[in-house]
Design a protein that fits this description.
The chain has four helices and five strands, in the order H-H-E-E-H-E-E-H-E. It is α+β, with helices and mostly antiparallel strands.
Length: 160
C-alpha cells in the first residue's frame, strides 16, 4: 500500500435523479432550514440569512442530513442545465463548464461563511458505486469536471 488515495473516474455527466430528501423549492428549503435545531451554534439561522438573494440561481436543490449528537450536513446540488436552477430557470440548455464551476464557487461560499467543521467538500455520484465527497482542494487537484454537489458539515460542541 502506497498511502495514495484512489480517486474514482468522473466523466462530468448530468445527474439523472436527485435524492428523495432534496428540496427544490427555495421557500420550503428556507422554512425547513430555519426550523432545524440540529445545527450547532445557530449555524442554520446564519445559513438562512446567507441564502437570501440570488443564491438560488446557482443551485439545483438542497438536502439536510443530521444526527443531533454527531453531525449536521448540508448538501447543495448544482445545476447541469439552465432549467434545473431553483430560481430563474431558463430553457433546457446545458450550462458551460465555466458556469458550472462558478455555481460551485458560489455554493461553496455560503457554508464556508458559517465556519463548518472541516473542509467544504465537492462531490459526485459515479455511475456505479457510492457518492464521492472530498475536500474541495483535493477535488480541484484531481478532477477537471465541475462537481455535482457541495457538502459541508457541522459538529456540535462537546458538552462538559
Amino acid at each position: 500500500m502506497t498511502g495514495q488515495r484512489e480517486y474514482p473516474e468522473w466523466d462530468g455527466r448530468a445527474l439523472a435523479e436527485l435524492p428523495g430528501k432534496a428540496f427544490t423549492d427555495p421557500a420550503d428549503f428556507l422554512i425547513e432550514l430555519g426550523k432545524r435545531d440540529d445545527f450547532p451554534d445557530g449555524a442554520n439561522e446564519d445559513l438562512v440569512q446567507l441564502f437570501k438573494g440570488s443564491m438560488f440561481r446557482w443551485i439545483r436543490a438542497a438536502e439536510f442530513s443530521a444526527h443531533p449528537e454527531w453531525w449536521a450536513h448540508l448538501t447543495l446540488w448544482l445545476p447541469f442545465f439552465q432549467d434545473e436552477r431553483m430560481y430563474g430557470p431558463g430553457d433546457h440548455t446545458r450550462l458551460s463548464a465555466a458556469e458550472r464551476w462558478h455555481a460551485a464557487e458560489v455554493a461553496m461560499s455560503v457554508p464556508a461563511q458559517t465556519m463548518p467543521t472541516g473542509s467544504v467538500q465537492l462531490g459526485f455520484t459515479p455511475s456505479a458505486g457510492e457518492p464521492v465527497a472530498i475536500p474541495w482542494h483535493e477535488y480541484c487537484k484531481h478532477y477537471r469536471e465541475p462537481p455535482e454537489y457541495v457538502k459541508a458539515g457541522w459538529q456540535p460542541e462537546p458538552v462538559e
